[in-house]
Every structure is written in structure tokens, then in C-alpha cells.
Amino acid sequence: MQERDLLLDEKIVWSGHPNGVCAPPFARVLAFSWFTLSGTATCFAVVTTLGLGESPTHLLLFAFWTATLGLLTSHGPRIWLDKVRYTITEHHVIWERGPLRRTIERRGINFARIYWSGVSGTGDIELVRAVPAGALRRRLLVRLYNVTAPEKVWMIIRGAESSAEPDRVGRSVAQRLDDGERVLWSAQPSPVLHRHLPRGRREWQMLILAGILLFAFATMLERAIPNARGLLEAGLGDTAWWALVFGQGLALGLVLMLGLWFGYEALVRPVSLLQNTRYWITNQRVLIQRGREELQLDRDQIVDTIDVPKPGGGRDLFLVLDGPSARALALSGAFGETQRGSELRPVFESIENIDEIAALLQATPDNIMANSGAPSAQGR
């Protein structure tokens, strides 16, 4: 006899839990920053004790505090998710940890993002329900962290069957189609010069932060060298002097690393992600793959498309989805916005033959089968 969810009174068709969760990249960078600050404070505590003969208590307390924050940042996600459980019932997907519980209707899910991990056969599934722009637009989302066989789990959620081998990292998503599914069109974003420039508030903020940090690094380096030389000539002991140099080196390295990281996130990573993106339209779904990230969207969720010209040339095709009480663009927000985040969105960026592609997306399955002239050229 199948188990039932006591709260919803529905049969449970699958259950699981996170498998070996690690901190996300931003958390790892933040943890490294905390540990570096802790090391810097410890070095300055040595200088304060040996060079100035004063108590290092306040610096050691700061070092302990930042080291604790580093441990919490690096291990916090694993501790938090260790007791999380995932359940798929007849009609819902449930995320729960103790008394905390989040649910999303299976039929209300518009699309899923799959983030494959470095371990073969595991990854995250982000279930998204499109909602109109507004204060509530980011609440209808459930993420299942580091589940085993994430594509199989997504197939269970959408009630699909496939004889292909799923969950193999590095394989094209077009090689893992459902039974009876075939590719009608595929392409990559066309190379456009302006895509190398920051777009949206987030990327401009990161670029400004990178500039500030790199300027701070140059200023700190300019002052650190003569200060260290002057203290050595003034008779600062070898141990205290080397502790000072090492502490300043840690601080300089941290500022330089953060400046380069913010610059990479603002200028290099968005271009790299776009170059590794490929789009597919099948007779059943829209598929987008970018390295180890995928977006899978059933075609019957698409109710309209919006053609948005890009500054400097090129055109994007936004997919309007069937959201609750209104048509929506999922988490992309307002129609045609230029804000570009790191997550995959239901948008075809910088594609050619956009009118034909829009017509193909809005065609019914019967028209697709009857229309042999549908665009099927393979892009770059």
C-alpha cells in the first residue's frame, strides 16, 4: 500500500532528500573572505603584542568572530539542508524541514531549471510558476537541492516517459528527449558586439564595485611598501615585521581577489554563459542548455511571444507564459526588461528568423505535424 501525505491526503509517488550538499559559489567566496579577515586580524594581533606591547584582545576577538562566520557560511547550507525532505504526491511537490513546509501544485509548474553538479547523476531542480510582475512574483518557486537523478524526478513531476538515458552530465539535452518527441529547430545566440557590455543594474553595480576595489588595492599597495620599509628601519622586530607584512599581504590579496571576481561577474561571465547557450524547439517542449544548466518548458505553457529589439542591433524573443490570473514572464519581470541575471530565463537572446520562430512556438501540435516547412535549420 502506497504511503499518503497526511496533510494533503494524497498518495506519495516519490520522496527523497539532498545528497551531499555543498555551499554555493557566492557562499564559498564569502567564507574565504571571512577566513582571510580572520588571518589578517591574527597577524595584526602579533604586531600589536610584539611591536607595541599592547593587549591584542580586541583583535583576537575579531579574528575569532570572522572565523566563526566563515565556518557558518561554508557549512551552514549543509547543516540546514541535512534534515530537508522532498515529496511528490499525486498533485503537489512538497519541500519540508521540521515544521517548515512549502508546496507547489504540479499542474501549476510552468518550467523547471536543472543545475547539474560535478558529481554524475546529481543536481538541483528549480520548479517555477510564472506570475505577473509585482511584489509576489518571486514567491512561487521551490528548489530541490542536490537530488539524485534530477531529470528523472522532473519526469515524474510532469508525468512524462522516456526511453533515453537521462542524468548523464555532458550530454546534450536534445539526446534525452521524451518518447515521440523530435527536434524542430535549434540554434545558438548570434554574436553581437554589445552583449560584451554590462546590462542592467546588477552588472553595473558589480562593475562599479570592481573599480572601487581595484582602486583601493592600488592605493593600499602604494602605501604599504614604504610603511613596511619605514617600520623595519625604525627597529621593528623580525617576527612582528613579518607578521605585519603577511597580514598586509592577506588584506591586499583579499581586496584584489574581490575586485577581480566582481569584474569577472560583470563583464566576462555573462558573455561566457551566452556563448555556451543553445536553444531547442521540439514538437512538445522548449529546451535551453547552458553548460551544466538546463531550462525545460512545455510548449502548452506558452501563450504569446514578445519580440524585443536590443540596443546596438539584434532581437530577443521573450516567451509569455500562462501565469496565475495573468500572463507573465516568470521571474524575468516586466516585458522586455534589460535586467540580466545569472539564471536561465524563458528568453531566446540574439536569434535570427525571429518571426518564423515565434510562429513555430505558437503553432498547435496538429499544425506542426502538417507543416513540413517549419524552420529546422541548425544554428551555430
Features of the shown structure:
seven-stranded antiparallel sheet; single chain; 7 helices; five-stranded antiparallel sheet; 39% helix; 380 residues; alpha+beta
Protein model, in words:
By secondary structure, the chain is α+β, with helices and mostly antiparallel strands. Among the domains are: 57 residues; 78 residues. Helix content is 39%, strand content 24%. The strands form 3 sheets. The protein has a 7-stranded antiparallel beta sheet with strand order 8-7-6-12-11-10-9. It has a 5-stranded antiparallel beta sheet with strand order 1-2-3-4-5, covered by helices on one side. Strands 13, 14, 15 and 16 form a 4-stranded antiparallel beta sheet that branches. Helix 1 runs antiparallel to helix 2, helix 1 runs antiparallel to helix 5 and helix 4 packs antiparallel against helix 5. It starts with a strand and ends in a 10-residue tail after the last helix. The C terminus is likely disordered.
